[in-house]
Amino acid sequence: METPTYCNLPAGAAIAGKDLLLTIWSEDGAEFLAISGQRSLTINRSADTIEISSKDTAGGWKGFLAGMKEWSIDLDGVYAVDDASHRKLSEAFANGGLVCVRVVNNKTDEDMFGGLAAITDYPIDAPFDDAVTYSISLSGNGALVDLTDEPTPVEG
Q1: What are the residue boundaries of the structural domains of the chain, listed by start?
Q2: CA 78, CA 2: separation in Å to the nearest integer?
Q3: % of the chain beyond a pLDDT of 70
């Protein structure tokens, strides 16, 4: 039986934030691990601003160009001390190494973004009256790759 046309979702339908997960390569490089306890995820993308104005700029309006680009990811959640993803993050932070990250739509199992990043902030908060939480800031090293148009590599 075919789905009635009135039940089809429109192309470009919205995505629920709860469905996006940040993952990192496992210790042995065999799989991606979802970072445990995730609550929020922010993907930041920006470019330097280069002013190109001069005394003879038309109408007295400033002009700008986009310069070098950068990306970062901010994530927070409930901390799980024995989780493999947090052990890997702690090791990378301590060693100053890069982590291979991937943002995946957990509902559709589709990759969205990926890249290499340095861990620039990784505090753990232990309030008197609440759960132990973490936050993490990742600064991109090179491009943040849009994976929505790229085929997922075959594993195995």
Answers
A1: 23-51+63-146
A2: 42
A3: 88
